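To: structure subgroup
Subject: Chain for Friday's discussion

All,

I'm putting the inputs and outputs inline so they're searchable in the archive.
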Amino acid sequence: MKFVFDFMGVLFEPGHIIRNGFYPLLRDRFTYEELKSAYKKAVLGDSHLLNSMVPVEEQRKILLSVVKPKFDFSMLKGIRAYGLTNLPAFWGFSLYETYLGNYFSGVFVSGAMGIKKPDEEVYRRITGVLGKDIIFFDDKVENVNNAKKAGWNAVLVKDDVVELIKKFL
């Protein structure tokens, strides 16, 4: 059995990273619309604009100051856990390396894949790598429904993700 977890809202506290993290710190250099536009491109794999606006070292610092884990990930040690996120590649891999690398087997990042949830192709590609023996945790109904279409056991996270995970361990 493989466990696949959405990042924002499941593993990490939900939040608007651009609105609540990047924009307040960078509003003297960029408009909200400029940052959001660069972010949207980076989520699908084109990070050139975002990286030209904000150096990656500064992105990492801001990201790690804004994004907070929802629980102690050590409870997942010993299971085959993977992350799945709609973040720019550098952001997804930074969060993985900082918080998940000791406990997770890997991560799938839209910014590296060039495609994002809820596109059904995301789930097909991951199924091609991991097989269908997957339990998926996400906080968005559309993502859960499309994962189910791909043959995954998908769980909608509404409240305490730790209690949901314990049901499957």
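Points worth raising on Friday:
Strands lie at 2-6, 80-85, 106-109, 134-138, 153-156.
Residues 17-66 form one domain.

D.
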